[in-house]
Amino acid sequence: MKRKLIAAIGVAVMVAGVAACGSDDKGSGKAAAPKEITVWLTVDAQKNWPELVKQADDAFTAKHKGVKIRHEYYEWTAKNQKLDAVLATKKVPDVVEMGNTETLGYLVKGAFAPVDKSKFENSGDWLDALEGSVTYNGKTYGVPYYAGARVGTWRKDVAKAAGVTKAPTTWAELTDALDKIQKKNGDKFSAWYQPSRDWYTALAFVKDAGGDVAKEDGGKWTATLSDPKSIEGLKTWKSVLDTYFHGDKNKDESDRYIVYGQGKSALIYGASWEGGAAADPKTDKTGKLKDNLETFALPGPNGDLLPNFIGGSDLVIPAKSAAQDLAADWINGFTDSAAQKVLISKGNLPNAKSLLAPLKDDPATAASARANENTWFVPTAPGWLQVEKKQILQNMLNDIAVGKASIEDATKAADEQINAVINAG
């Protein structure tokens, strides 16, 4: 996917950053061996699979005696701003978690060091969408960490109380069930808790209707949110919010699992780990979620599954890192088959096709695996990272949700903003 982009737009070969040298060891001219590595991860790892972090740390320190590991955790919304600042200095982290939609913009600028793909377990079988996100000009610049499916998660007890006894398989069944749940619980309850700024879901409706964010023609990308089919999808999305979401329409999805744990909603559509996180005793304020949650691949309005965004994370090594070999070794222990088993147990999808196949036969993971039968990804444009950084989509959706702008006016304005940055490398 990324290779096609590079071929299409003819981006010049990047000049890779030179790794910073360590200080001479007592004037011998030999660089001193690093005594510490710094690993940046998002708070997902800190909150939801800390045992995997410890597992990787223990394997690393057993092999590299005396080398310390310093972890820093960031919210997705703050990470890149911090990363941009430190990449301009000589003191950079040695491992950084990147969302797979974020990576290309940094690769174009030479921010990350190439890695030897053969040194990482399952590298011959990585998921295409993740491998493409770390591939640039025929070289590999990172390691896929995990993939994410988006699934419907609802409370069976709430559904049953409203007369619904099985998970929906069609859009008509879904809306009928939500109508019954909404009527049963009143207008202070959200039959579907759907934060307006969650652009992954909104764009799933756009894709379902045959629309898109942007299209490429002759190497140039042009925004298409104001096209009729895109508007059709956004009208369906808006009707979902107006009918079933009775909460703060200025919200994003970052704390969705926490809000869900408060017991004032029946359904969420989000990352497959969110239901489990909501059911954690620290989050579940109802005491009922653990035994009452059910996940399913969400049906879409046009007769297929709602198109599922292929999200996920990569692990990269900044080009200025003075501990690149150590960083690669830590990454290997954090992404190998044993690590993938932990991630699967938390509701994520693994980074390799061979590990994905068996999940469709396991009731605990079947919904996530099936959801990826109908998928989409963001435009592989050189300026896509700027679209995300400027939160153009989130702001457009927020304006629509709260009635600040009509769908037609909001999409036209968003298209103009996207066109200003999407082709800039």
Give your account of this protein's structure.
- GO terms for molecular function: maltose binding.
- This is Carbohydrate ABC transporter substrate-binding protein, CUT1 family.
- This protein has 425 residues and is an alpha/beta fold.
- The protein is 41% helix and 16% strand.
- It has 19 helices and 15 strands.
- The strands form five sheets. The chain has a five-stranded mixed beta sheet. The chain has a four-stranded mixed beta sheet with strand order 8-11-7-12.
- Helix 3 crosses helix 13, helix 9 packs across helix 10 and helix 18 packs antiparallel against helix 19.
- It is globular and about 70 Å long.
- The protein starts with a helix and ends with a helix.
Q: Topology of this structure?
A:
Elements: H1 2-9, E1 36-42, H2 43-48, H3 50-63, E2 68-74, H4 76-87, E3 95-99, H5 103-108, H6 128-133, E4 135-136, E5 139-140, E6 143-148, E7 150-155, H7 156-161, H8 171-185, E8 190-192, H9 199-208, E9 214-217, E10 220-223, H10 228-244, H11 256-260, E11 265-271, H12 274-279, E12 293-296, E13 308-309, E14 311-316, H13 324-335, H14 337-345, H15 353-356, H16 366-371, E15 375-376, H17 384-389, H18 392-401, H19 407-421
